[in-house]
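USER: My hope is that you can spare some time for a protein that puzzles me. I am handing you a single protein, as its sequence and its fold in token form. Walk me, if you will, through where the backbone shape changes along the chain. The protein I mean follows directly.
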Amino acid sequence: MAIREELWEFPHTMHLKVMGAVDAPLEDAVVDIIERVLEQEFDRPRNLSARPSSRGNFIALTARITVQDKGQVEALYRELNACPHVKITL
């Protein structure tokens, strides 16, 4: 994912959307990646919401995060896309 840094202001608060199968440990995997990349504890109750798909096969997570620079954005998407539990990242 190529980030055009001139279009961003850092630090930047964003809503990261991730989808995966409902029977996978998606939430734990996503939180682990966020905490590792951002190097800070992630407050799940305040910053993570989950919504099941209409048929109940998938779950969509929305994480409110603050990134400090372009490298964190790129690392988040790289690690999330490499995670076997993640189907889609937005």
Remarks:
- The first strand starts at residue 12 and ends at 21.
